[in-house]
Design goal:
By secondary structure, the protein is of the alpha+beta class. The chain has a domain of 140 residues: Adenine-n6-DNA-methyltransferase TaqI, Chain A, domain 2 (Alpha-Beta Complex), CATH 3.90.220. The protein contains 9 helices and 13 strands. The strands form 5 sheets. Strands 4-12-9-10 form a 4-stranded antiparallel sheet. It has a 3-stranded mixed sheet with strand order 8-5-11. Strands 1-2 form a two-stranded antiparallel sheet. Strand 6 and strand 7 form a beta hairpin. It is extended and about 75 Å long. InterPro entries: Restrct_endonuc_typeI_TRD, Restrct_endonuc_typeI_TRD_sf, Type-I_RS_S_subunit. Pfam families: Methylase_S. Keywords: DNA-binding, Restriction system.
């Protein structure tokens, strides 16, 4: 006899790698499955172990739900502070609140023209929603970079993907990448002093704003794309600078708490795995 909750935890812990065969099309056939073994203590012990793991799993799930809520807290703060602006006519074209909007190009020769080191070239793969990913960062020599001197990145420029499957993704340029260039798939949006980069990034990350940007991109004649003119015409809320700064401070505090919560969640995952290991070795 077997307790179903205990069986679920055992199967999750052990997995089925030992009975999977077939390189081209992995599958589990009847014969290997008949040889699959699991630890099977007395039924009462199974119930005891399952009860302990149920409690630990419930705590783990609570932590995950709390982290999910924290990750959307920035958006909630934005709507709490500025929701009335979003539903009013107090919006202005980005062109009036920026000092630069522009995208670059890919050097002749494509990927083969990139160097092992040099001036960084930011591509769409580097721009994640709300974060910058250095993986896949390309590099140019001085001559190639000179050909893109009209799109020199400054730290905290707002980067917006303007073509392809990742269109409308947005992130801030890291300060340490000042002097980098962007290719034709990424636009630099440099806010004027009246708008904080972090505020603009948060606005462009709002789900409703993201939908608007995607709608603009999908209206392209031949491909998903957002043009410079469309970025310039895109309307953003005109918010007093001190209120923007207050929002950024609150959002940063929420993000810090989310990081701590994420670290605790990782610790809980590791502890749960350790608990399973001990349970199925008879050490619990």
């Amino acid at each position: 006899r077997v307790n179903l909750s205990f069986l679920r935890y055992v199967l999750e812990f052990q997995g089925f790698a030992s009975v999977i065969n077939g390189a081209a099309q992995p599958q589990i056939t009847r014969q290997p499955l008949l040889t699959y073994t699991i630890p099977l203590p007395p039924l009462e012990e199974q119930r005891r172990i399952a009860g302990i793991l149920d409690q630990a799993d419930a705590l783990r799930r609570l932590r995950t739900r709390a982290l999910d809520k924290l990750n959307t807290l920035g958006q909630a703060i934005f709507h709490e502070m500025f929701g009335d602006f979003l539903n009013s006519k107090l919006m202005t074209p980005l062109a009036k609140l920026t000092t630069k909007i522009g995208s670059g190009a890919t050097p002749r020769g494509g990927d083969a023209a990139y160097k092992d080191a040099g001036v960084p070239l930011i591509r769409s793969m580097n721009v994640r929603d709300g974060s910058f990913d250095r993986k896949g960062l390309a590099f140019l020599d001085d001559d190639q970079a000179d050909g893109l001197k009209n799109v020199i990145v400054r730290g905290k420029d707002v980067l917006l993907n303007i073509t392809g499957a990742s269109v409308a993704r947005v992130a801030l340029a890291p300060v340490e990448l000042s002097g980098a260039r962007v290719n034709q798939h990424v636009a630099i949006i440099r806010p004027a002093p009246e708008m904080l980069p972090e505020f603009l990034e948060a606005f462009l990350l709002l789900p409703s704003v993201k939908r608007n940007l995607l709608g603009i991109a999908e209206a392209g004649a031949t491909r998903q794309a957002i043009t410079k003119a469309q970025i310039e015409e895109f309307k953003v809320p005109l918010i007093p600078l001190k209120d923007q700064a207050n929002f950024v401070a609150r959002r940063n505090e929420a993000a810090h708490i989310a990081v701590l919560c994420g670290q605790q969640q990782q610790q809980q995952v590791a502890l749960f795995a350790s608990l399973q290991h001990r349970a199925f070795r008879g050490e619990l």
